[in-house]
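HUMAN: I'm a chemist; might I ask for a sequence paired with its structure tokens?

ASSISTANT:
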Amino acid sequence: MKTLIKNANIFQNGKFTPGEILIERKKIIKISRGIASSDYTANKVDKIIDAKGACVFPGFIDLHSHLRDPGQTYKEDIVTGTKAAAHGGFTAVCAMPNTEPITDNIASVEYIQLRAKDYGSAKVYVIGAITKQSAGEEIAEMATMKAGGIVAVSDDGKCVQNARLMLSCMKYASNFGLPVIIHPEDYSLAGKGQIHSGKVATKLGLSGIPGLAEEVIIARDIMLAESAGAKLHIAHISTARSIELVKNAKGKGLPVTCEVTPHHLVLNEEANLTFNTNTKMKPPLRSEEDRLACVQALQEGIIDCIATDHSPHADFEKEREFDLAPFGIIGLETAFPVLYKNLVQTEQIDLNRLIEALTIAPAKILNLPGGILAEGKTADLTIIDMEKETLFSAENILSKSKNTPWLNQWFPGRVMCTICDGKITYLDSENE
């Protein structure tokens, strides 16, 4: 099977070059400013994709997705979640372990892997639990899960509160070369908070979650990771002080990395003023000062990468009183367009850094393949028309769930085509 992408603006080494890409089976075999038509005629190429001047980027990689499979497939499953990923230009996602049952054993790992292999539209890398049932009481079966192919461990939305146990978990994970991903939250400080503890919470009469709840755990786990010799990755960082802690750890040469979500880069606590439950997430949307600190840290490389924290919830779960609605929003389909419009077009970050944060940076953090376009590499790529707009309506969102604050809004940066392992996993209807 040979596929030729022609009339493309190819993104390599931080710049665009007009040219063509030839794919054979799973590999990119040639990138050129002019692949000779005598060598690659329609008779020799099985599929020709006319990019029509659109941009070709490496396939995006998401380190933080909730596919809800098994156990909560009314919200999402591996089929719909990876279709949503492909629609958003993602060729790989990391599946968090908060499934039912929890992904804390080899059987659960193998189930996800087999489902993804048979039915997925993107690669799915499995993240195993840190503790059994993510209950924060006993170390999970890391050895067997590692043998089965997990790429990291995390208790995801449940944060290990016992520092002694967390130290043991880190030491154990380090033995197997497994990065530890944390959702930093001190429960005694977070309490039953609903949104950021600030002026908006006071105005709305909602209980708040202070930034300190995040910062205390980050400070603790950086010290624990240093003692354990573990690689630490901090999920969805959200405050200026958290960023400072990471900066200091990096300055000491510690293997500490972190991610930020699109919503924490674009929205602040004032989005909660309408009581829209699609603005309710953990960590909560913070102050404008925190948001700006996240943007600056991303541009400077203190924040390593962008992750969606794709968290599908059914309409009936979100359409209820604010304090009863679950935390979280979907993000795979909106990540690039939202960031391109709100940060790149406004010149808050440059396009090079955005693409790096969605591709090679997450690949390096978990030692995953992909993230670059080059001859001989796996053909994981996305073609995006930077001028054409997309309407994120309930009808064109491929996720089962529609819980996004950007519902029924238009954004530039339309994914025309996504290719994973040399196969077309998404093709815009206008290009079929």
